[in-house]
Amino acid sequence: QKSGYKHYMLKEIFEEPSCVAATLSGRIKSAKVHLPEIEELQDLLASSKTLKVVACGTSSYAALSFKYFLENLSDVCVDVEVSSEFRYKRPNFDENTVLVAVSQSGETADTLESVRLAKSKGAKVLAITNVVGSTLMRESDHTLLLNAGPEISVAATKSYVTQLVLLYLLGLKIVELRDQWNERCTKLIDSLLRLPEVLDATLSRAEHIKEVALKYKDFQHFMYIGRGLGYPTALEGALKLKEISYIHATAYPAGELKHGPIALLGPEFPVFAIAPFDALYAKMKNNMIECKARKTKLVVLTSDDCEDVREIADDVLSVNSFSEQLYPVLMAPVIQLFAYYIADALGHDPDKPKNLAKSVTVE
Ligand code: F6R
């Protein structure tokens, strides 16, 4: 039931505000994070130097955002690896390790094998999944559920947004357990609670996103760039675009441009910059100017408080000004809709991209 939407993907993007509300529900009490599911892990989470995280595809980009988020707020080192690499590497961890396995479906073969490897070494496994009773949930020691409801479209959308929110809650819990809570964390709790409403505001801009997307549908290539938390968002933007529109898209940390990728840029190779008005904006601006000097078309995804971006951008997409750390959540529907409208305009079915399955149950 697409409830009047042309595709499940579109419906699922528009469900994001209510899904985030469901993910948050009951998990914030007295301005602190309430996650009884992980009570038994508290001592380890409070003391471990390193937290390991495994995931694939979009889930791995949610995990990478978690790394930036938590390392910025605490002294824990978050080690993120794609499951297909983790499972074949020397397992250099022990029973004092917590492995967080992030998988919407809970059936991704490489993630399950990573969990089995970790458990065989005595590590404790915390699953982040959307599917009750999934193999991942059954085989893990503890589970945090996304509560996003079934995701039908092959492209992950609402599961990605809710993974971000749940991982941020986990991050804040870890900060509290390590006695590193400060005023910023209290503000983040407040912002998290406002997310459903602010996501609604992003979605109300869908028509403008569509107008901009359609201008770019005939390009063969796209380069996504970002810094800090903008980098995982760039990776996810490029993945969404390539998997449903079949346009070649690549993503780089903006500071890496000079180390090679900038050689590709020119009038036929547009750039999509993730550039909210945050602590790294000035650096992003320099990178964007360098791109424009190569005569590339430039789409900038920024925040409403950024005033000077219009001077350099060909097209500006924007979200409400908000807590810097939460821009990945607010910007997710924009990169998803941008990819969706292009795929649809090119006549592709975004719900069933060629060669892809919803759950990758084989290696
Ligand atoms: C992209 C996408 C995939 C999945 C990946 C992991 O839109 O859906 O990249 O994110 O296959 O799937 P899960 O999260 O089910 O383990």
Descriptive notes:
- The chain has 363 residues and is of the alpha/beta class.
- It is 44% helix and 16% strand.
- It has helices at residues 8-14, 16-24, 42-47, 57-73, 83-86, 109-120, 135-139, 158-177, 183-203, 206-215, 230-245, 281-293, 327-345; strands spanning 28-29, 32-33, 50-55, 77-82, 98-103, 124-129, 142-145, 221-226, 248-253, 271-274, 298-303, 315-319.
- The strands form three sheets. A five-stranded parallel β-sheet has the order 4-3-5-6-7, sandwiched between helices. Strands 9-8-10-11-12 form a five-stranded parallel β-sheet, with helices on both faces.
- Helix 7 links the parallel strand 6 and strand 7.
- Helix 2 runs antiparallel to helix 9 and helix 4 runs parallel beside helix 8 (158-177).
- It is globular.
- The two termini are 31 Å apart.
- The mean pLDDT is 97.
- The structure holds fructose -6-phosphate (F6R).
- Fructose -6-phosphate (F6R) binds at residues 56-59, 103-105, 108, 111, 155-156, 239, 243, 359-360.
Q: How many E-type strands?
A: 12
What percent of residues adopt helix (DSSP H or I)? Answer: 40-55%
Could you describe the largest sheet, including whether it forms a barrel? Answer: 5 strands, parallel
Q: Average the pLDDT over all residues and give the rounded result.
A: 97
Adjacency order of strands in the biggest sheet: 4-3-5-6-7
Give the helix/strand class. alpha/beta
From the N-terminal CA to the C-terminal CA, the straight-line distance is 31 Å
> Which range does the strand content fall in?
15-25%
What's the helix count?
A: 13
Query: Which hetero ligands occur in this complex?
Result: fructose -6-phosphate
Low-confidence stretches: none
